Amino acid sequence: MKQYKKLLLKKLNEHGWELVAQDSDCDWWLEEYWTIRSTRANWGLELLVLFLVDPHYDGHLKHQGVWAVSVAHDMPIDRSDAERRLVLISIKSHFNQEVDILLDAINDYRNGDYQYGAYH
Fold first, then answer.
1. pLDDT of the residue at 62
2. Is the pLDDT score of 1 beyond 90?
3. 39 — phi, psi (to 5°)?
4. Alpha-carbon distance 88 to 48, whole Å?
5. What is the full DSSP assignment across 12-40?
6. Collapsed DSSP state (helix, strand, coil) of residue 4
7. In 3-state terms, what secondary structure has residue 62?
8. What is the pTM of this model?
9. Rounded CA gap, 60 and 67, in Å?
């Protein structure tokens, strides 16, 4: 597992989210996705964590082309749709800070305090 995924999983667990499923049988634009479940407030709420492949990546190993992580409440229909979901963060720089933005967004969503467009 890539280092950024290990960090993300660790932080998710610390914030009351558990990984319940992983799927890598995906379209070209999606390396894999995780299903996560809340273990705190709004117990049982499930979200999808999507690992997006750069549209300009032309390699054969999709995990090497991941550029961003998005979170959605249901499966997006395409890459564009995935980029407009609850939150979108880059893995390319300042990932530690970006992960905190992702956590703020999904924790606010879980608690009913989510504000679309407020997480940058």
1. 87
2. no
3. -110, 10
4. 12
5. HHHTTEEEEEEE----TTEEEEEEEEESS
6. helix
7. helix
8. 0.92
9. 15
Distance, CA of 21 to CA of 117 (rounded, Å) = 27
Rg over CA atoms, the chain = 13
pLDDT tens per residue across span 41-69: 999 999 999 999 999 998 888 888 899 99
pLDDT at site 60: 83
pLDDT at 118: 81
The whole-angstrom separation of Cα 116 and Cα 97 is 19
Q: Who contacts 86 (Cβ-Cβ below 8 Å, separation ≥6)? A: 47, 70, 71, 72, 73, 105, 106, 109, 114, 119
How is residue 41 written in tokens?
A: 């407030």
DSSP string, 68-118: EEEEESS--SSHHHHTTSSEEEESSS-HHHHHHHHHHHHHHHHHT---TT-
Mean per-residue pLDDT for 83-99? 91
